[in-house]
């Protein structure tokens, strides 16, 4: 980045390299197309309609959101084919989802229990609506999702509800193999494809004519698509990438489109320096020094393996030196690489977009959307 632009940054902040983001969007779309698999990217990483429109322009069939409030923001921004991949439980959530169906061409909702499906069906009946739904199946992540041994039974029960149209199944598995964490994305992806093929066959044999079989996060997405056993993948982080994906073998350092910038505000001694970003800037949803990846800090200081960010308060980040002398001075700006970019973006009200010549600010419109 040019020095005059560098000086314009109000830190702590995030800068997104638009050229790299464009390359990432094009690369993933081309790879999915080559597998004859639809791409429905998750907006959890960028949380901005601008980037959803970019993904759709490259050929994505629709987008994925976690919460109805995120979907409302994306609909305002032009997205009209949205899958909310999160159990639609809670009267307030269901009400907002039904209102959203009137504003988009296609809205797909998620269920993973009969209790949730019945409540959703009753609300749809009262509103005179038929709601499209997908059934979530747990394939090893052990969060939401019906147990795979019960998927066919539950699918048949939901299929019998009057105002729900069950059109598919979906899963989030990530780097899990034989129900245990793994570092092998190839094994994890192939197993994901095998599992989803078996589950979809069992559902169809139970008399439920589902069409869509959706899987795949960024680490495993293309591996699942290559199996030919799903017809949709939902990666999200690929658009920006981060150090976590590099360690997982799903990205290269040159593919990371995001940088964090911070200013040194205090240097009490040579052993450490304090920057103006702490826990309100840098995510702490990773464990340091823990297998399999042994992350050395909450962000990486670019171009300097000696400096580490391992301790923070709300507004203070403590940069230490392995050698014992940070070499930093008050007023220095440092560049850091995010470990997990999704949570880093969600901590910013706005980010800078860099097009190679200019900087402009973009609001992170769907940050903090919890409902």
| CATH class value of the largest domain | Alpha Beta
Give the number of helices: 11
Whole-Å distance between the termini? 38 Å
- Class from secondary-structure proportions: alpha/beta
Total domain units: 2
Low-confidence regions: none
Quaternary status: single chain
Q: What is the third-level CATH name, the topology of the largest domain?
A: TIM Barrel
Fraction in helix:
25-40%
Q: What is the 3D form?
A: elongated
Description:
With 371 residues, this protein is α/β, with parallel strands linked by helices. The chain has two domains: 3-13 and 251-363, D-serine dehydratase-like domain (Lyase, Ornithine Decarboxylase, Chain A, domain 1, Beta Barrel); 35-238, Alpha-Beta Barrel (TIM Barrel), CATH 3.20.20. Helix content is 30%, strand content 26%. It contains eleven helices and 20 strands. The strands form three sheets. Strands 1, 13, 14, 15, 16, 17, 18, 19 and 20 form a nine-stranded mixed sheet that branches. Strand 11, helix 9 and strand 12 form a beta-alpha-beta unit. Helix 4 (68-76) packs parallel to helix 5, helix 5 (91-100) crosses helix 6 (114-127) and helix 8 (185-205) crosses helix 9. The longest helix has 21 residues, at 185-205. The relative contact order is 0.15.
